[in-house]
Write a structure and sequence with these properties.
This protein is an alpha/beta fold and 409 residues long. It contains 20 helices and 14 strands.
């Protein structure tokens, strides 16, 4: 089975190589791994102990970041090596100052995993949420290196819990401890004999609370708001924008901040084509000009988590595609959150819908009356949903401390 696993990875690698001739992400995936062991060898301090933290991409990194930063604060004798699987994580965070070494993770072949572990010799390893690389995890087990997964979430449809999943289940028994997000995950693990697990929640609650505490003041956004009620739409896609812009065009009493998931020119042009009221782009305007606009389009990255605090209601994009983006960045400010129908794989979204802090829509027929209700002057619906969102985030903070205390005592 191990040989078949290695063969499957080589076939995958070959497929990425073929794709790299026309795909920039695939090209970065390959180029970033060239000479990565030699790069690590040149950076590693042989006299130090390293905690290895691995994240698939940017979202998983944000979950792991509070753990990394608390380790650095409380256990400065350790150094951190942070690895990524995806270019979308590495390219954004390759200069992250919280880690001593940041690099791509070599492909999980038996020989690739061995070279990496021989080079790093980590004191312990921490995987984030979904990462189950068989050769790495089994290699750590053979070397008696403590291995953990944090903010993990399990579902019944995963191979671990199927009749054919015996080989996959073996990897679960290699972890020293599994820190999971919900009771369902804990119960599923117990059903296959994995009892070294605990319900600690999601470290992203700690992350968004820290972001909110350090949020930037944005004079342009403040000048735009002018005391009006504002809908902030984060990480929007075209289907989201169809609904958002149609409502916005017919409600002059409401302003909108639109931060699209993609900011290439053709997408920005498509947004402008849907608007019938004055707009401005964040990059390219000033406080005097933006005050005349009714829609502010964010044509840069890195501001959304600070922008949310200027709104009354948040709309989170992606719910008409593969799944919604980060809802907690908005909820931490006590904002009701609205999104499309594909949210059920996100525990926090499910929880907030149950608590009346979030609302799922199928289209304009649900979105329009919901906004009418929320944005009415003195709306009790807005007040109660805002309180529910703030309470939910506050109640779920603390996972990071539980995890770090368990691992390091």
């Amino acid at each position: 089975m191990s040989l078949l696993y290695d063969l499957g990875l080589l076939i995958y690698h070959f497929g990425v190589w073929v794709a790299s001739f026309g795909n920039d992400k695939a090209k970065k995936f390959l180029e970033g791994r060239k000479g990565v062991i030699e790069y690590i060898s040149g950076k590693i301090d042989k006299n130090s102990q390293y905690v290895w933290v691995h994240a698939a991409s940017l979202g998983e990194f944000e979950q792991g970041r509070p753990v990394i930063e608390q380790i650095k604060r409380l256990k400065p004798e350790y150094k951190i090596i942070l690895t990524f699987f995806s270019p979308s994580g590495y390219e954004v965070r390759k200069n992250y100052e919280g880690a001593d070494i940041v690099c791509y993770l070599p492909i999980d072949t038996s020989w690739g995993a061995k070279r990496f572990l021989d080079t790093v010799q980590p004191a312990c390893a921490i995987f984030i949420k979904y990462e189950f690389w068989m050769n790495y995890i089994r290699g750590l087990k053979r070397r008696n290196i403590p291995t953990y997964i944090v903010s993990a979430i399990f579902r019944e449809e995963q191979a671990f819990f199927k009749w054919y999943g015996g080989w996959y289940r073996k990897v679960l028994h290699c972890f020293n401890h599994l820190f999971v997000q919900n009771q369902t995950s804990l119960d599923l693990l117990a059903s296959v004999g994995v009892t070294n697990a605990s319900l600690t929640g999601d470290t992203r609650f700690d992350r968004v609370a820290d972001i909110a505490a350090k949020s930037k003041e944005l004079p342009i956004v403040s000048a735009f708001k002018q005391g009006k009620k504002v809908i902030v739409a984060g990480s929007s896609w075209p289907k989201d924008e169809d609904i958002l812009c149609a409502y916005f065009n017919e409600h002059p009493e409401v302003k909108m901040i639109l931060a699209p998931h993609e900011i290439h020119q053709s997408h920005l042009d498509s947004i402008v084509a849907k608007l019938k009221r004055p707009y401005a782009f964040y990059q390219g305007t000033n406080e005097e000009e933006v005050a005349k606009a009714d829609c502010l389009i964010i044509n840069c990255f890195g501001l959304l988590s600070s922008i949310y605090k200027y709104g009354e209601v948040a709309y989170i994009g992606g719910g008409f595609g593969v799944g919604i983006h980060n809802t907690l960045e908005a909820a931490v400010y006590g904002m009701p959150v609205v999104f499309g129908p594909n949210y059920h794989k996100f525990q926090e979204a499910v929880d907030m819908v149950k608590r009346g802090a979030a609302f799922s829509i199928e289209g304009a027929e649900q979105y329009n009356p919901l906004m009418d209700k929320m944005l009415t002057d003195g709306s009790s619906s807005l007040h109660s949903a805002s309180e529910a969102a703030a309470a939910y985030v506050n109640e779920n903070r603390g996972a990071t401390t539980k995890i770090v205390e368990y691992i390091f005592g």
